[in-house]
Amino acid sequence: ACQHQPPGQEDTRDGQSLVFADLSPEEMAQVVRYLRGNLGVPLVDASRAKPSDNCIASVEVQVPAKAEVLQFLDGGGARPPREALAVLYLGNQPEPNVTEYVVGPLPRPVYHRDVTLQKYGGKVPYHRRPVTGKEYTDINGLIQRELRKALRFLAACCGSDGTDLAILTTAPRGFKSGDRATWFVLFHSVAGTGYYLSPVGLEVLVDHGDLHVSRWRLLKIFYNGQYFGSAGELEDAFVANLLEMVRMEKPPAEAVLGSLRPQRPPGSPGPLQYEPQGPRYSLRGNRVTFQGWSITFGMNPNSGPRLFDIRFRGERIVYELSLQEALALYGSNCPGGMSTRYFDGSFGIGRFAYELVRGLDCPYTATYVDRHYLAESETPKTNQNSLCIFEHDAGLPLRRHFSDSQSFYYGGLRKTTLVIRAVSTLINYDYIWDFMFHSSGAVEVRVHATGYISSSFLHGRGTDYGNKVGPHTLGTMHLHHMHYKVDLDVDGQLNSLETQDMEYELVKDPWSMQNTIERPYLRRERLEREDEAAFPLNTPMPRYLSFASSKPNKWGHPRSYRIQILSFAGEHLPTSSSMERSISWGRYQLAVTRRKEEEPTSTSIYNQNDPWTPTVAFADFINNESITNEDLVAWISVGFLHVPHAEDIPNTVTVGNGVGFFLRPYNYFDEDPSVDSPDSVYFSSEQDTGACGANPLACLSPAAACAPHLPPFHYGGFLNL
């Protein structure tokens, strides 16, 4: 058996990372108990609450202000009080609204303060609240009752009475502020497979804006290119033989489109990575250290994974690196598809990061960490093993050289990275969020999309909006755009933005002055204001763009970190759109602004259901302020256009569907810091390359000749469903 050895790294800041820690279930329960006893309004558990009730929608950690945190981390100041942010839907009020309270100090709260006005400039209108599970349940009940008025049609079109059809929401919910009318798409549901590929051609528009469920109503029904005012009207058209019917029998499980059941028996096991002497990283609470790296990690229930206080060799490089939003915007000739613009943060990117499957979602021997959340219930829930940490051997040299002249030698270093990963399932899509840390001092951020495509019923000129992927299934075109916040602190908080790119100059050769040479030269520029540093999506951007310190490295260049974006985004929504301001972060592949405590996020969970009057509009962050020698934030958009095709069945594959960015040292060091890696290999022609003392690769045979300890497989990811 392999004998584990501790990594041997000193943890000199034990406990400091807890200033960023997500709430524990006990802390969440204390906040709920405090609010119930001190808020002075009747509260109903959100899992049962009607729109006309008051309820606690969510509770999460309130991260202290950066100045307070840095005074604590770097200046010997007091630990900031630990506080929670509680979001309440207050429907049982003369003026229903959404109110946010900061509650503290934890673990035993004694105060709460309303921060809604401070954050948003006023109360958040009630219609902007995200839809709860209870609201969806009540909507489904309404749809089922209405469909009973069209039973003969349902039997003929779908072989169903409607009760076994899956119902999928779209969003946003109307065309103007105050609307709460949603198109719902109906599908055949077959146990054990994704219903998203089996539309039956039926879609319904439900107005659910009233506080009283009894006043909700079905406004429209769509079937195979035709619109009707009610289920009764649809039934009458069927009886009168006025419908173009396409019979869609419920497929058997073995023949359903998109089944993930294996079609072959298991083969021999594939390659397995393991650690002969145990993990070389160290995990303590919410902080992981690895070969000079120190990272504090967490999970926001809405916006998803986020990292704080990222240090390399003891120096902070990034104060905050966090996902902000994931947008999926669709096209179709069916009403549900054509109106869909999912803002996934409103649904819960972190909340729906479920348990990871050992050996597939992450390496079998990875370290798995639980995450906790409180949303739409007064009882905290746990997504067990929903974040994984592992060291990954890329099977590629980070650097290498074989010398075949002057002297003969080989030198190189394996490319191994520390990976922090979570996977969010947002209805049909699964997003794999990766944060990777290289021994060269680079940070890599990447997202891959997989899971099921969403689809529409194929009718008319449907292929103008995608490809046919089943007998009556249109794989609808859509774009995925993700937004990140990167608060870089390069050799201190105060940085400037510098760009470099190439041009050619035509010069005469200086040794004869008779010939000309096209000589590339470096064009350097410092960007002075925010407007200059807002780079529109899909337009040329300087190839080198860096956050620069005022302090030089050994060679006289500003110590800097370069931002390098890898993306092939689709086109942003036209700015003439009435809802564009709600996703105005998508205008830019990169925008650099001065950091402000009152601009913590680029969007809001309230933008989804009122994109016409956005609660947070990122475009307002860019107001041409100076960005020279200031605390700066880089806001980065990445994404891709996806036109579904036959090979997206059953699932979209991750190959070619990954985008992201790098943060790379640029004159930050005096040389590549990976030269200090204990994994470096060097041997010359005069050495015995098979000797362990001369070549660490020769030590592998005895050092790794052991059997890894593989824990028994267990999966509990279905527990919270």
Automatic annotation (TrEMBL):
<dbReference type="InterPro" id="IPR000269">
    <property type="entry name" value="Cu_amine_oxidase"/>
</dbReference>
<dbReference type="InterPro" id="IPR015800">
    <property type="entry name" value="Cu_amine_oxidase_N2"/>
</dbReference>
<feature type="region of interest" description="Disordered">
    <location>
        <begin position="257"/>
        <end position="278"/>
    </location>
</feature>
<protein>
    <recommendedName>
        <fullName>Amine oxidase</fullName>
        <ecNumber>1.4.3.-</ecNumber>
    </recommendedName>
</protein>
<feature type="active site" description="Proton acceptor">
    <location>
        <position position="344"/>
    </location>
</feature>
<dbReference type="Pfam" id="PF02727">
    <property type="entry name" value="Cu_amine_oxidN2"/>
</dbReference>
<dbReference type="InterPro" id="IPR049948">
    <property type="entry name" value="Cu_Am_ox_TPQ-bd"/>
</dbReference>
<keyword id="KW-0560">Oxidoreductase</keyword>
<dbReference type="InterPro" id="IPR016182">
    <property type="entry name" value="Cu_amine_oxidase_N-reg"/>
</dbReference>
<dbReference type="InterPro" id="IPR015802">
    <property type="entry name" value="Cu_amine_oxidase_N3"/>
</dbReference>
<dbReference type="InterPro" id="IPR036460">
    <property type="entry name" value="Cu_amine_oxidase_C_sf"/>
</dbReference>
<dbReference type="GO" id="GO:0005507">
    <property type="term" value="F:copper ion binding"/>
</dbReference>
<comment type="similarity">
    <text>Belongs to the copper/topaquinone oxidase family.</text>
</comment>
<dbReference type="GO" id="GO:0005886">
    <property type="term" value="C:plasma membrane"/>
</dbReference>
<keyword id="KW-0186">Copper</keyword>
<dbReference type="Pfam" id="PF02728">
    <property type="entry name" value="Cu_amine_oxidN3"/>
</dbReference>
<feature type="domain" description="Copper amine oxidase N2-terminal">
    <location>
        <begin position="43"/>
        <end position="111"/>
    </location>
</feature>
<feature type="active site" description="Schiff-base intermediate with substrate; via topaquinone">
    <location>
        <position position="429"/>
    </location>
</feature>
<feature type="modified residue" description="2',4',5'-topaquinone">
    <location>
        <position position="429"/>
    </location>
</feature>
<dbReference type="GO" id="GO:0009308">
    <property type="term" value="P:amine metabolic process"/>
</dbReference>
<dbReference type="Pfam" id="PF01179">
    <property type="entry name" value="Cu_amine_oxid"/>
</dbReference>
<keyword id="KW-0801">TPQ</keyword>
<keyword id="KW-0479">Metal-binding</keyword>
<feature type="domain" description="Copper amine oxidase N3-terminal">
    <location>
        <begin position="129"/>
        <end position="225"/>
    </location>
</feature>
<dbReference type="GO" id="GO:0048038">
    <property type="term" value="F:quinone binding"/>
</dbReference>
<dbReference type="InterPro" id="IPR015798">
    <property type="entry name" value="Cu_amine_oxidase_C"/>
</dbReference>
<dbReference type="GO" id="GO:0008131">
    <property type="term" value="F:primary methylamine oxidase activity"/>
</dbReference>
<feature type="domain" description="Copper amine oxidase catalytic">
    <location>
        <begin position="273"/>
        <end position="674"/>
    </location>
</feature>
